[in-house]
Amino acid sequence: MILAMLVGLVGVAFVIAYNPGGTANPAVFGHSFNEVVSCGVVQGPITTTAASVASCASDEYLLGGGGQCETGISGDPFPSCGTNLGFLHDSHPAGNAWQANCFRHDNSGESCVQAYAICCK
Fold first, then answer.
1. Domain housing 83
2. Tell me: the pLDDT tens digits for 37-52?
3. Which of 1, 35, 61, 67 is 20 to 30 A from 115, comparing alpha carbons?
4. Model pTM?
């Protein structure tokens, strides 16, 4: 069996291909292992007071996801969040979307968070 995967970074699509030409493989997510599945990463909004949710389109299915919190590290994608440094408190699927939430290290409230979903069709 041949298994090939090309994985991209946030915002860049990637493709998963299973056993081209094979015939004895079960279907996964409505696709046989003879097909090419196209996937991409969807970013949710950066939020400061609630969970961030990254949603897949209605013709896509959720493969996985995650979240990122304000860290204060150079290159951090949250320039407008100040010093609300936090840790990922919650990260889980929510229907056909991924939800994430961060708390501040000093437990004084929520920190900036952005959710990511891997969506395929």
1. 3-120
2. 789 999 999 888 789 9
3. 35
4. 0.69
